[in-house]
Design brief:
The protein has about 120 residues and is of the alpha+beta class. The chain has one helix at about 5-20; strands spanning about 45-50, 65-70, 70-75, 80-85, 85-90, 95, 100-105, 105-110, 115. The radius of gyration is 30 Å and the shape is elongated.
Length: about 120
């Protein structure tokens, strides 16, 4: 090891050791800001002006302890976008209501997939 390398290593070590020795008092000049909690989210009903396209059947097979949540069409404000289905762990004492669209007088209303108590 050269003299220059040893001097540099010593300087780095001395700097690292000395850096932990300095303590500066902390002064808070600002008053704490209290942020109010946002109100709970309100339920927003999604209504699309046109019927969703026909959904293609997904061949998934079976998986013990899980139920397949069907894929669906999501309305993005201008058009429908396909969302693939997924596996949901079975909940004892509940049944799964799949996501779907319902036709009403003012358009197509979205119903998210939820677990319903038996």
């Amino acid at each position: 090891m050269s003299l220059r390398t040893m001097a540099l290593a010593s300087l780095v070590t001395l700097t690292a050791l000395a850096s932990g020795c300095v303590e500066a008092p902390v002064h808070h000049h600002r008053r704490p800001v209290v942020i109010e909690q946002a109100p709970p989210r309100a339920y927003v009903e999604l209504v699309a002006p046109q019927a969703p396209p026909v959904w293609a059947v997904e061949n998934t097979g079976t998986r013990p302890g899980y139920v397949w949540a069907h894929g669906y069409w999501r309305w993005n404000g201008r058009r429908y976008v396909a969302v693939r289905g997924h596996w949901e762990p079975v909940r004892v004492g509940y049944r799964y209501a799949h996501p779907h669209w319902e036709r009403r007088g003012d358009g197509w209303h979205w119903r998210a997939g939820v677990w319903v108590q038996d």
